[in-house]
Amino acid sequence: MLNSYSSADKVLLAVDCIIFGFDNEGLKILLIKRDFEPEKGKWSLIGGFLKRDEVLDDAAIRILNTYTGLHDIYMEQLYAYSDIDRDPVERTISVSYYALINIENHNAELIKNYHAQWFSIADAPNLIFDHDEMVQNAIKRLRYRTSIKPIGFELLPEKFTMRQLLELYEAILSKELDKRNFISKINSLEILNKLEEKDMQSSRKGSYLYTFNKEKYEEKLLNDFVLNL
Amino acid sequence: MLNSYSSADKVLLAVDCIIFGFDNEGLKILLIKRDFEPEKGKWSLIGGFLKRDEVLDDAAIRILNTYTGLHDIYMEQLYAYSDIDRDPVERTISVSYYALINIENHNAELIKNYHAQWFSIADAPNLIFDHDEMVQNAIKRLRYRTSIKPIGFELLPEKFTMRQLLELYEAILSKELDKRNFISKINSLEILNKLEEKDMQSSRKGSYLYTFNKEKYEEKLLNDFVLNL
DNA sequence: AGATAAATGCGTAAAAATGACACTTTGATA
DNA sequence: TATCAAAGTGTCATTTTTACGCATTTATCT
Protein backbone atom coordinates (compact mmCIF):
# COMPACT_ATOMS: atom_id res chain seq x y z
CA MET A 1 0.00 0.00 0.00
CA LEU A 2 1.30 3.35 -1.12
CA ASN A 3 1.91 5.82 1.65
CA SER A 4 3.64 8.68 -0.06
CA TYR A 5 4.07 10.30 -3.43
CA SER A 6 7.78 10.29 -2.85
CA SER A 7 8.89 12.01 -5.99
CA ALA A 8 6.71 15.08 -5.57
CA ASP A 9 7.91 18.40 -4.17
CA LYS A 10 6.37 19.87 -1.09
CA VAL A 11 5.81 23.56 -0.65
CA LEU A 12 4.70 26.02 1.96
CA LEU A 13 1.08 26.97 1.71
CA ALA A 14 -0.02 30.25 3.20
CA VAL A 15 -3.35 31.94 3.66
CA ASP A 16 -3.88 35.68 3.40
CA CYS A 17 -7.05 37.37 4.58
CA ILE A 18 -8.64 40.43 3.05
CA ILE A 19 -11.01 41.78 5.68
CA PHE A 20 -13.42 44.47 4.55
CA GLY A 21 -15.16 46.75 6.96
CA PHE A 22 -17.38 49.79 6.61
CA ASP A 23 -18.07 52.87 8.68
CA ASN A 24 -19.23 56.45 8.09
CA GLU A 25 -16.01 57.14 6.31
CA GLY A 26 -16.35 54.39 3.74
CA LEU A 27 -15.01 51.01 2.84
CA LYS A 28 -11.93 49.85 4.71
CA ILE A 29 -9.53 46.97 4.93
CA LEU A 30 -7.79 45.55 7.95
CA LEU A 31 -4.01 45.43 7.81
CA ILE A 32 -1.23 44.56 10.18
CA LYS A 33 2.28 45.79 10.60
CA ARG A 34 4.41 42.74 10.06
CA ASP A 35 6.26 41.72 13.18
CA PHE A 36 8.71 39.33 11.61
CA GLU A 37 11.20 39.23 8.79
CA PRO A 38 11.25 39.75 5.92
CA GLU A 39 9.59 43.12 5.44
CA LYS A 40 9.23 43.50 9.19
CA GLY A 41 7.47 46.73 10.01
CA LYS A 42 5.74 47.03 6.66
CA TRP A 43 1.99 46.77 6.19
CA SER A 44 0.56 43.51 5.04
CA LEU A 45 -2.56 41.44 4.87
CA ILE A 46 -3.21 39.16 7.77
CA GLY A 47 -1.59 35.90 6.84
CA GLY A 48 0.02 32.73 8.02
CA PHE A 49 0.88 29.19 7.09
CA LEU A 50 -1.38 26.23 6.66
CA LYS A 51 -0.69 23.45 9.13
CA ARG A 52 -0.29 19.88 8.02
CA ASP A 53 -3.61 18.73 9.40
CA GLU A 54 -5.73 21.72 8.75
CA VAL A 55 -8.25 22.60 6.11
CA LEU A 56 -7.72 25.92 4.33
CA ASP A 57 -10.97 27.39 5.61
CA ASP A 58 -9.93 26.62 9.18
CA ALA A 59 -6.46 27.98 8.63
CA ALA A 60 -7.94 31.27 7.49
CA ILE A 61 -10.08 31.45 10.61
CA ARG A 62 -7.21 30.55 12.90
CA ILE A 63 -4.82 33.02 11.33
CA LEU A 64 -7.30 35.85 11.44
CA ASN A 65 -7.94 35.09 15.09
CA THR A 66 -4.27 34.90 15.94
CA TYR A 67 -3.51 38.33 14.60
CA THR A 68 -6.68 40.20 15.44
CA GLY A 69 -8.57 38.32 18.08
CA LEU A 70 -11.51 38.17 15.71
CA HIS A 71 -13.56 35.02 15.75
CA ASP A 72 -16.70 33.66 14.11
CA ILE A 73 -15.81 35.35 10.87
CA TYR A 74 -17.03 33.66 7.74
CA MET A 75 -14.52 33.97 4.94
CA GLU A 76 -14.66 32.90 1.35
CA GLN A 77 -11.77 31.53 -0.62
CA LEU A 78 -10.68 33.61 -3.56
CA TYR A 79 -7.55 32.62 -5.41
CA ALA A 80 -4.18 30.88 -5.12
CA TYR A 81 -1.13 33.03 -5.86
CA SER A 82 1.95 31.15 -6.87
CA ASP A 83 4.60 33.37 -8.40
CA ILE A 84 7.95 31.78 -7.76
CA ASP A 85 9.44 34.71 -5.93
CA ARG A 86 6.35 36.17 -4.40
CA ASP A 87 7.88 35.49 -1.00
CA PRO A 88 11.62 36.17 -1.07
CA VAL A 89 12.43 33.82 1.80
CA GLU A 90 11.03 30.57 0.58
CA ARG A 91 8.75 29.26 -2.12
CA THR A 92 5.27 29.90 -0.80
CA ILE A 93 1.94 29.59 -2.48
CA SER A 94 -0.74 31.70 -0.88
CA VAL A 95 -4.48 31.23 -0.97
CA SER A 96 -6.45 34.42 -0.39
CA TYR A 97 -9.65 34.61 1.60
CA TYR A 98 -11.95 37.54 2.07
CA ALA A 99 -14.63 38.56 4.52
CA LEU A 100 -16.93 41.44 5.29
CA ILE A 101 -17.23 42.46 8.88
CA ASN A 102 -18.81 45.10 11.01
CA ILE A 103 -16.13 47.41 12.31
CA GLU A 104 -17.99 48.50 15.42
CA ASN A 105 -19.04 45.05 16.50
CA HIS A 106 -15.56 43.79 16.31
CA ASN A 107 -13.96 45.53 19.14
CA ALA A 108 -11.46 48.11 18.05
CA GLU A 109 -9.67 47.50 21.34
CA LEU A 110 -8.81 43.96 20.57
CA ILE A 111 -7.66 44.77 17.13
CA LYS A 112 -5.50 47.50 18.55
CA ASN A 113 -3.84 45.10 20.97
CA TYR A 114 -2.89 43.00 18.06
CA HIS A 115 -1.52 45.91 16.02
CA ALA A 116 -4.08 45.51 13.31
CA GLN A 117 -5.46 48.68 11.82
CA TRP A 118 -8.24 49.76 9.50
CA PHE A 119 -7.37 51.67 6.34
CA SER A 120 -9.63 53.33 3.84
CA ILE A 121 -9.39 51.50 0.57
CA ALA A 122 -8.39 54.70 -1.11
CA ASP A 123 -5.44 55.57 1.09
CA ALA A 124 -4.12 52.24 2.24
CA PRO A 125 -0.34 51.98 2.24
CA ASN A 126 1.52 49.83 -0.23
CA LEU A 127 1.56 46.26 0.92
CA ILE A 128 4.26 43.63 0.87
CA PHE A 129 4.69 40.90 -1.72
CA ASP A 130 1.68 40.57 -4.00
CA HIS A 131 -0.80 41.69 -1.39
CA ASP A 132 -1.89 44.76 -3.33
CA GLU A 133 -2.91 42.54 -6.20
CA MET A 134 -4.81 40.32 -3.79
CA VAL A 135 -6.72 43.31 -2.49
CA GLN A 136 -7.60 44.51 -5.98
CA ASN A 137 -8.96 41.11 -6.88
CA ALA A 138 -10.91 40.93 -3.67
CA ILE A 139 -12.56 44.27 -4.40
CA LYS A 140 -13.55 42.99 -7.80
CA ARG A 141 -15.08 39.92 -6.24
CA LEU A 142 -16.86 42.01 -3.63
CA ARG A 143 -18.48 44.05 -6.39
CA TYR A 144 -19.62 40.96 -8.14
CA ARG A 145 -20.99 39.53 -4.95
CA THR A 146 -22.94 42.73 -4.44
CA SER A 147 -24.82 42.13 -7.64
CA ILE A 148 -26.00 38.65 -6.75
CA LYS A 149 -26.36 38.54 -3.00
CA PRO A 150 -27.52 40.99 -0.38
CA ILE A 151 -24.71 42.75 1.42
CA GLY A 152 -24.74 44.77 4.55
CA PHE A 153 -25.63 42.41 7.34
CA GLU A 154 -21.96 41.86 7.89
CA LEU A 155 -20.86 45.44 7.44
CA LEU A 156 -23.43 47.69 9.06
CA PRO A 157 -24.35 48.09 12.70
CA GLU A 158 -27.40 46.25 14.00
CA LYS A 159 -29.57 49.28 13.33
CA PHE A 160 -28.86 51.48 10.39
CA THR A 161 -30.45 54.09 8.18
CA MET A 162 -31.25 53.86 4.51
CA ARG A 163 -28.60 56.42 3.87
CA GLN A 164 -25.99 54.24 5.49
CA LEU A 165 -27.00 51.31 3.36
CA LEU A 166 -26.95 53.49 0.29
CA GLU A 167 -23.51 54.79 1.16
CA LEU A 168 -22.26 51.27 1.68
CA TYR A 169 -23.36 50.28 -1.78
CA GLU A 170 -21.91 53.44 -3.23
CA ALA A 171 -18.62 52.75 -1.51
CA ILE A 172 -18.42 49.20 -2.79
CA LEU A 173 -19.47 50.02 -6.31
CA SER A 174 -17.71 53.36 -6.24
CA LYS A 175 -20.46 55.13 -8.09
CA GLU A 176 -23.38 57.29 -7.14
CA LEU A 177 -26.82 55.76 -6.94
CA ASP A 178 -30.20 57.41 -7.15
CA LYS A 179 -31.61 57.37 -3.65
CA ARG A 180 -35.22 56.88 -4.65
CA ASN A 181 -34.58 54.05 -7.02
CA PHE A 182 -32.17 52.47 -4.59
CA ILE A 183 -34.74 52.46 -1.83
CA SER A 184 -37.40 50.88 -3.95
CA LYS A 185 -35.03 48.21 -5.22
CA ILE A 186 -33.85 47.35 -1.76
CA ASN A 187 -37.41 47.27 -0.50
CA SER A 188 -38.38 44.90 -3.24
CA LEU A 189 -35.88 42.40 -1.83
CA GLU A 190 -37.91 42.35 1.38
CA ILE A 191 -34.97 41.78 3.64
CA LEU A 192 -35.34 44.82 5.89
CA ASN A 193 -37.40 45.53 8.97
CA LYS A 194 -38.32 49.16 9.38
CA LEU A 195 -38.30 50.17 13.03
CA GLU A 196 -40.42 52.79 14.79
CA GLU A 197 -37.23 54.28 16.08
CA LYS A 198 -35.37 57.07 14.37
CA ASP A 199 -31.78 58.11 14.20
CA MET A 200 -31.66 61.80 15.11
CA GLN A 201 -27.98 62.34 14.45
CA SER A 202 -28.21 62.64 10.76
CA SER A 203 -30.85 65.33 10.39
CA ARG A 204 -33.50 67.38 12.10
CA LYS A 205 -36.28 65.24 10.89
CA GLY A 206 -34.39 62.09 11.76
CA SER A 207 -34.30 59.02 9.61
CA TYR A 208 -35.90 55.71 10.29
CA LEU A 209 -33.71 52.90 11.47
CA TYR A 210 -33.81 49.49 9.89
CA THR A 211 -32.57 46.07 10.81
CA PHE A 212 -32.00 43.13 8.56
CA ASN A 213 -34.60 40.42 8.63
CA LYS A 214 -32.18 37.62 9.28
CA GLU A 215 -34.33 34.83 7.94
CA LYS A 216 -35.22 36.46 4.69
CA TYR A 217 -31.70 37.74 4.32
CA GLU A 218 -30.27 34.27 4.58
CA GLU A 219 -32.87 32.88 2.26
CA LYS A 220 -31.71 35.42 -0.30
CA LEU A 221 -28.12 34.44 0.33
CA LEU A 222 -28.87 30.93 -0.75
CA ASN A 223 -30.61 31.81 -3.95
CA ASP A 224 -28.63 34.19 -6.06
CA PHE A 225 -30.54 36.96 -7.74
CA VAL A 226 -29.62 39.83 -9.94
CA LEU A 227 -29.61 43.22 -8.31
CA ASN A 228 -29.17 45.93 -10.81
CA LEU A 229 -28.10 49.12 -9.09
CA MET B 1 19.03 37.11 6.44
CA LEU B 2 16.17 34.70 6.84
CA ASN B 3 16.17 31.86 4.39
CA SER B 4 13.38 29.62 5.60
CA TYR B 5 10.20 29.70 7.63
CA SER B 6 11.48 26.71 9.50
CA SER B 7 8.52 26.09 11.71
CA ALA B 8 5.95 25.88 8.95
CA ASP B 9 4.64 22.62 7.51
CA LYS B 10 5.06 21.81 3.86
CA VAL B 11 2.44 20.01 1.85
CA LEU B 12 1.95 18.53 -1.56
CA LEU B 13 0.22 20.80 -3.96
CA ALA B 14 -1.60 19.26 -6.90
CA VAL B 15 -3.38 20.63 -9.89
CA ASP B 16 -6.45 19.06 -11.45
CA CYS B 17 -7.75 20.08 -14.84
CA ILE B 18 -11.36 20.14 -15.89
CA ILE B 19 -11.30 20.22 -19.67
CA PHE B 20 -14.60 20.96 -21.36
CA GLY B 21 -15.17 20.16 -24.98
CA PHE B 22 -18.13 20.35 -27.28
CA ASP B 23 -19.25 18.47 -30.36
CA ASN B 24 -22.53 17.62 -32.07
CA GLU B 25 -23.40 15.41 -29.16
CA GLY B 26 -23.08 18.08 -26.50
CA LEU B 27 -20.84 19.22 -23.71
CA LYS B 28 -18.11 16.83 -22.66
CA ILE B 29 -15.25 16.51 -20.22
CA LEU B 30 -11.92 14.89 -20.70
CA LEU B 31 -10.99 12.15 -18.23
CA ILE B 32 -8.20 9.67 -17.85
CA LYS B 33 -7.99 6.21 -16.45
CA ARG B 34 -5.54 6.49 -13.62
CA ASP B 35 -2.38 4.52 -14.25
CA PHE B 36 -0.97 4.59 -10.75
CA GLU B 37 -2.06 3.82 -7.22
CA PRO B 38 -4.21 4.56 -5.41
CA GLU B 39 -7.41 4.10 -7.36
CA LYS B 40 -5.46 2.80 -10.33
CA GLY B 41 -7.79 2.02 -13.20
CA LYS B 42 -10.51 4.39 -12.05
CA TRP B 43 -11.53 7.49 -13.94
CA SER B 44 -10.18 10.80 -12.78
CA LEU B 45 -9.49 14.34 -13.81
CA ILE B 46 -6.16 15.02 -15.37
CA GLY B 47 -3.93 15.96 -12.49
CA GLY B 48 -0.45 16.04 -11.13
CA PHE B 49 1.84 17.71 -8.65
CA LEU B 50 3.22 21.20 -8.65
CA LYS B 51 6.99 21.32 -8.90
CA ARG B 52 9.05 23.40 -6.57
CA ASP B 53 9.96 26.01 -9.15
CA GLU B 54 6.81 26.19 -11.11
CA VAL B 55 3.89 28.58 -11.16
CA LEU B 56 0.45 26.98 -10.82
CA ASP B 57 -0.65 28.14 -14.26
CA ASP B 58 2.37 26.47 -15.81
CA ALA B 59 1.89 23.32 -13.81
CA ALA B 60 -1.65 23.03 -15.14
CA ILE B 61 -0.36 23.39 -18.68
CA ARG B 62 2.45 20.89 -18.18
CA ILE B 63 0.22 18.31 -16.54
CA LEU B 64 -2.42 18.58 -19.20
CA ASN B 65 0.23 18.14 -21.84
CA THR B 66 1.81 15.18 -20.10
CA TYR B 67 -1.39 13.20 -19.99
CA THR B 68 -3.04 14.24 -23.20
CA GLY B 69 -0.44 15.73 -25.48
CA LEU B 70 -2.55 18.88 -25.60
CA HIS B 71 -0.67 22.15 -25.70
CA ASP B 72 -1.42 25.84 -25.96
CA ILE B 73 -4.51 25.46 -23.85
CA TYR B 74 -5.49 28.45 -21.79
CA MET B 75 -6.84 27.42 -18.41
CA GLU B 76 -8.32 29.43 -15.62
CA GLN B 77 -7.80 28.74 -11.97
CA LEU B 78 -10.90 27.85 -10.02
CA TYR B 79 -10.54 26.75 -6.45
CA ALA B 80 -8.25 25.09 -3.93
CA TYR B 81 -9.54 21.89 -2.33
CA SER B 82 -8.01 21.01 0.98
CA ASP B 83 -9.96 18.37 2.84
CA ILE B 84 -7.56 16.49 5.07
CA ASP B 85 -8.25 13.09 3.61
CA ARG B 86 -9.15 14.01 0.10
CA ASP B 87 -6.17 12.00 -1.07
CA PRO B 88 -5.79 8.85 1.03
CA VAL B 89 -2.08 8.50 0.42
CA GLU B 90 -0.75 11.78 1.62
CA ARG B 91 -1.99 15.20 2.57
CA THR B 92 -2.51 16.97 -0.73
CA ILE B 93 -4.13 20.27 -1.52
CA SER B 94 -5.37 20.51 -5.05
CA VAL B 95 -6.00 23.59 -7.12
CA SER B 96 -8.49 23.08 -9.91
CA TYR B 97 -8.19 24.64 -13.33
CA TYR B 98 -10.65 24.57 -16.17
CA ALA B 99 -10.56 25.15 -19.88
CA LEU B 100 -12.79 25.03 -22.92
CA ILE B 101 -11.38 23.40 -25.96
CA ASN B 102 -12.38 22.39 -29.42
CA ILE B 103 -12.61 18.62 -29.58
CA GLU B 104 -11.96 18.32 -33.28
CA ASN B 105 -8.97 20.59 -33.35
CA HIS B 106 -7.29 18.69 -30.64
CA ASN B 107 -6.45 15.50 -32.31
CA ALA B 108 -8.42 12.60 -31.03
CA GLU B 109 -5.48 10.38 -31.97
CA LEU B 110 -3.13 11.95 -29.55
CA ILE B 111 -5.61 11.88 -26.76
CA LYS B 112 -6.21 8.21 -27.43
CA ASN B 113 -2.53 7.39 -27.16
CA TYR B 114 -2.55 8.89 -23.77
CA HIS B 115 -5.63 7.02 -22.60
CA ALA B 116 -7.63 10.15 -22.14
CA GLN B 117 -11.26 9.98 -23.16
CA TRP B 118 -14.17 12.34 -23.67
CA PHE B 119 -17.35 11.79 -21.69
CA SER B 120 -20.68 13.51 -22.00
CA ILE B 121 -21.31 15.52 -18.89
CA ALA B 122 -24.50 13.60 -18.35
CA ASP B 123 -23.04 10.12 -18.38
CA ALA B 124 -19.53 10.54 -17.07
CA PRO B 125 -18.43 7.86 -14.62
CA ASN B 126 -17.92 8.55 -10.94
CA LEU B 127 -14.53 10.03 -10.34
CA ILE B 128 -11.95 9.49 -7.64
CA PHE B 129 -11.42 11.62 -4.56
CA ASP B 130 -13.34 14.89 -4.71
CA HIS B 131 -13.13 15.18 -8.48
CA ASP B 132 -16.90 15.01 -8.95
CA GLU B 133 -17.27 18.05 -6.75
CA MET B 134 -14.60 19.81 -8.76
CA VAL B 135 -16.47 19.11 -11.95
CA GLN B 136 -19.75 20.37 -10.53
CA ASN B 137 -18.13 23.61 -9.44
CA ALA B 138 -16.48 24.01 -12.80
CA ILE B 139 -19.80 23.64 -14.56
CA LYS B 140 -21.23 26.30 -12.31
CA ARG B 141 -18.36 28.60 -13.17
CA LEU B 142 -18.69 27.85 -16.84
CA ARG B 143 -22.36 28.90 -16.72
CA TYR B 144 -21.48 32.08 -14.97
CA ARG B 145 -18.74 32.80 -17.43
CA THR B 146 -21.23 32.32 -20.22
CA SER B 147 -23.30 35.17 -18.88
CA ILE B 148 -20.50 37.69 -18.80
CA LYS B 149 -18.11 36.77 -21.55
CA PRO B 150 -18.51 35.40 -25.04
CA ILE B 151 -17.95 31.68 -25.37
CA GLY B 152 -17.42 29.53 -28.36
CA PHE B 153 -14.14 30.52 -29.84
CA GLU B 154 -12.51 27.79 -27.86
CA LEU B 155 -15.19 25.17 -28.34
CA LEU B 156 -16.41 25.38 -31.90
CA PRO B 157 -14.63 24.64 -35.13
CA GLU B 158 -13.18 27.56 -37.04
CA LYS B 159 -16.32 27.79 -39.13
CA PHE B 160 -19.64 27.02 -37.55
CA THR B 161 -23.34 27.55 -38.03
CA MET B 162 -25.70 29.53 -35.86
CA ARG B 163 -27.32 26.29 -34.89
CA GLN B 164 -24.05 24.95 -33.56
CA LEU B 165 -23.53 28.05 -31.48
CA LEU B 166 -27.08 27.85 -30.21
CA GLU B 167 -26.65 24.21 -29.28
CA LEU B 168 -23.43 25.01 -27.48
CA TYR B 169 -25.16 27.57 -25.34
CA GLU B 170 -28.06 25.23 -24.74
CA ALA B 171 -25.66 22.50 -23.66
CA ILE B 172 -23.82 24.74 -21.24
CA LEU B 173 -26.92 26.28 -19.75
CA SER B 174 -28.89 23.07 -20.08
CA LYS B 175 -32.01 24.82 -21.18
CA GLU B 176 -33.73 25.53 -24.46
CA LEU B 177 -33.32 28.91 -26.04
CA ASP B 178 -35.52 30.66 -28.57
CA LYS B 179 -33.68 30.59 -31.86
CA ARG B 180 -34.79 34.02 -33.03
CA ASN B 181 -34.06 35.79 -29.79
CA PHE B 182 -30.75 34.02 -29.45
CA ILE B 183 -29.60 35.08 -32.88
CA SER B 184 -30.47 38.69 -32.34
CA LYS B 185 -28.73 38.77 -28.99
CA ILE B 186 -25.60 37.18 -30.36
CA ASN B 187 -25.63 39.53 -33.30
CA SER B 188 -25.87 42.50 -31.00
CA LEU B 189 -22.51 41.49 -29.53
CA GLU B 190 -20.97 41.99 -32.96
CA ILE B 191 -18.37 39.30 -32.57
CA LEU B 192 -19.25 37.17 -35.58
CA ASN B 193 -18.32 37.31 -39.23
CA LYS B 194 -20.95 35.90 -41.53
CA LEU B 195 -19.34 34.09 -44.45
CA GLU B 196 -20.63 33.65 -47.99
CA GLU B 197 -20.09 29.97 -47.62
CA LYS B 198 -22.77 27.59 -46.50
CA ASP B 199 -22.72 24.31 -44.68
CA MET B 200 -24.77 21.90 -46.78
CA GLN B 201 -24.62 18.96 -44.39
CA SER B 202 -27.29 20.15 -42.09
CA SER B 203 -30.12 20.76 -44.51
CA ARG B 204 -31.15 21.09 -48.11
CA LYS B 205 -31.18 24.81 -47.90
CA GLY B 206 -27.85 24.91 -46.18
CA SER B 207 -26.91 27.25 -43.39
CA TYR B 208 -24.48 30.10 -43.43
CA LEU B 209 -21.15 29.60 -41.78
CA TYR B 210 -19.71 32.08 -39.34
CA THR B 211 -16.33 32.71 -37.84
CA PHE B 212 -15.49 34.65 -34.75
CA ASN B 213 -14.11 38.10 -35.25
CA LYS B 214 -11.06 37.57 -33.13
CA GLU B 215 -10.42 41.23 -32.37
CA LYS B 216 -13.90 42.09 -31.26
CA TYR B 217 -14.18 38.80 -29.42
CA GLU B 218 -11.12 39.56 -27.37
CA GLU B 219 -12.24 43.09 -26.74
CA LYS B 220 -15.43 41.67 -25.29
CA LEU B 221 -13.42 39.25 -23.18
CA LEU B 222 -11.76 42.16 -21.47
CA ASN B 223 -14.89 44.06 -20.66
CA ASP B 224 -17.50 41.96 -18.99
CA PHE B 225 -21.07 42.43 -20.10
CA VAL B 226 -24.34 40.86 -19.18
CA LEU B 227 -25.78 38.45 -21.67
CA ASN B 228 -29.25 37.41 -20.74
CA LEU B 229 -30.23 34.31 -22.64
C1' DA C 1 -43.89 80.91 15.15
C1' DG C 2 -41.55 80.57 11.15
C1' DA C 3 -37.55 79.10 8.50
C1' DT C 4 -34.68 75.26 7.56
C1' DA C 5 -32.80 70.97 6.08
C1' DA C 6 -33.06 66.41 5.32
C1' DA C 7 -35.99 62.37 4.79
C1' DT C 8 -39.86 60.38 2.79
C1' DG C 9 -43.24 59.07 -0.44
C1' DC C 10 -45.60 59.15 -4.61
C1' DG C 11 -45.52 59.57 -9.31
C1' DT C 12 -44.44 59.34 -14.20
C1' DA C 13 -42.34 59.71 -18.82
C1' DA C 14 -38.94 57.85 -21.77
C1' DA C 15 -35.89 54.26 -22.93
C1' DA C 16 -34.41 49.68 -22.91
C1' DA C 17 -34.89 44.85 -22.37
C1' DT C 18 -37.41 40.81 -22.54
C1' DG C 19 -40.18 37.33 -24.38
C1' DA C 20 -43.64 35.41 -27.19
C1' DC C 21 -44.80 34.21 -31.50
C1' DA C 22 -45.36 32.32 -37.33
C1' DC C 23 -44.50 32.59 -41.85
C1' DT C 24 -41.32 32.51 -45.97
C1' DT C 25 -37.19 30.84 -48.35
C1' DT C 26 -34.37 27.47 -50.26
C1' DG C 27 -32.27 23.48 -52.59
C1' DA C 28 -32.46 18.58 -52.78
C1' DT C 29 -35.04 14.69 -53.57
C1' DA C 30 -38.51 11.72 -55.41
C1' DT D 1 -42.92 19.95 -60.27
C1' DA D 2 -44.55 18.89 -55.78
C1' DT D 3 -42.82 17.87 -51.35
C1' DC D 4 -39.85 18.16 -47.50
C1' DA D 5 -36.82 19.66 -43.83
C1' DA D 6 -34.28 22.97 -41.94
C1' DA D 7 -32.82 27.91 -42.28
C1' DG D 8 -33.83 32.44 -41.95
C1' DT D 9 -36.20 36.50 -40.61
C1' DG D 10 -39.46 40.76 -37.81
C1' DT D 11 -42.98 42.56 -35.02
C1' DC D 12 -45.18 43.85 -31.12
C1' DA D 13 -46.85 43.85 -26.37
C1' DT D 14 -45.12 43.81 -21.80
C1' DT D 15 -42.02 44.59 -18.27
C1' DT D 16 -38.13 46.71 -16.27
C1' DT D 17 -35.07 50.28 -15.69
C1' DT D 18 -33.76 54.89 -15.36
C1' DA D 19 -34.03 59.55 -14.50
C1' DC D 20 -36.30 62.91 -12.64
C1' DG D 21 -39.97 66.19 -10.17
C1' DC D 22 -42.27 67.70 -6.39
C1' DA D 23 -45.16 68.00 -2.36
C1' DT D 24 -45.07 66.42 2.50
C1' DT D 25 -43.29 65.50 6.97
C1' DT D 26 -40.84 66.71 11.05
C1' DA D 27 -37.38 68.05 14.68
C1' DT D 28 -34.48 71.82 15.33
C1' DC D 29 -32.64 76.28 15.14
C1' DT D 30 -33.44 81.22 15.50
Automatic annotation (TrEMBL), chains A, B:
Nudix hydrolase domain ranges (all copies): 10-143
Family annotation (InterPro entries): NUDIX_hydrolase-like_dom_sf (IPR015797), NUDIX_hydrolase_dom (IPR000086), WH-like_DNA-bd_sf (IPR036388), WH_DNA-bd_sf (IPR036390), WHD_NrtR (IPR054105)
CDD domains linked: NUDIX_NadM_like (cd18873)
Domain of life assignment: Bacteria
Pfam families named in the record: NUDIX, WHD_NrtR
Record-given protein name: ADP-ribose pyrophosphatase
Organism of provenance: Flavobacterium aquidurense
